[in-house]
Amino acid sequence: MERPFTDRRQAGRMLAERLAAYAGRRDVVALALPRGGVPVAFEVAMALGVPLDVLPVCKLGTPWQPELAMGALSSNGAQFVDEALIREAGVSTGQLQSAIATARIELGRREMRYRGERAPVPVPVAGRVTLVIDDGMATGASLKAAARALATLGPARIVAALPVAPVDARVRLGSVVDEVVCVLAPQHFYSVGQFYFDFDQVSDDTVRELLDEATGNSGTSGAA
After folding, report:
1. What torsion do the CA atoms of 198, 186, 51, 206 make, to the nearest 10 degrees?
2. Residues 98-107: pLDDT tens digits?
3. For 8-55+123-215, CATH number?
4. Between 93-115 and 204-218, two packed helices, what is the crossing angle to 10 degrees?
5. Domain ranges in the chain with CATH number 3.30.1310
6. Strands 52-54 and 28-32, bridge-based pairing
7. Is 148 helix (H, G, I), strand (E, B) or coil?
8. 58-115, which class in CATH?
9. What is the pLDDT of residues 52-88, one digit of tens each?
């Protein structure tokens, strides 16, 4: 089986080459879906010279079918609620608010794990090109939820940037992103891990170290 990526950081360097048109632009930010997307996004941010941040996202599952997302929240304040689905599913206002409260608590826990004692300094996305980066895409559910939430903050453009995704990734993501950039889009796709030699789980310590290093190197993370 072909494994074109040695590890996530090497995949990030390859992805950065595909994103060269965004290098050095002050209106571009990179947001990583943790945890696997962080080493990829780190390499992209360093190569392009753009700010890096993580984007923890919680999907809001319907009360009786948790896998069916009725919305999503992200740690940078973005929130998406599918009003049509909520009406069709008969979700009450109380049930929705309960789901949102639970998601906010979980996002707070994730922020603490990923950032440690360092206070979050969210990178502003309003009016900017936002590169949403992961280590790959299978179903696209998480990335779609992240993009829908991000759209509420008014980015100029949302770009899904991935080392590998199914050949129909653009169709799966639909209109929630403006562009999909992939290094590989194979016909035969079983899992993201099949394309990596090293696909070990990324630790919270690694996430924190890369965020700290990116902030120190760029001097721009979190800057307006």
Report:
1. -20
2. 999 988 888 8
3. 3.40.50.2020
4. 70
5. 58-115
6. parallel
7. helix
8. alpha beta
9. 998 888 888 888 887 677 888 877 777 788 888 899 8
Looking at residue 159, its pLDDT comes to 97
Question: Whole-prediction pTM value?
Answer: 0.82
Contact partners, residue 14, CB within 8 Å, separation at least 6? 5, 163, 183
Tell me where in the chain the CATH 3.40.50.2020 domain(s) lie: 8-55+123-215
Beta strand 179-184 with 157-164 is parallel
Radius of gyration, CA atoms only, the chain: 17
Mark out the alpha helices in the chain (DSSP H runs).
Answer: 8-18, 37-48, 83-89, 93-115, 141-151, 169-173, 204-218
Provide the mean pLDDT of the chain: 87
Residue whose token pair is 């962080």: 38
Q: Which two tokens stand for residue 128?
A: 């900017």
Side-chain-facing half-sphere of 129: CA atoms under 13 Å: 18
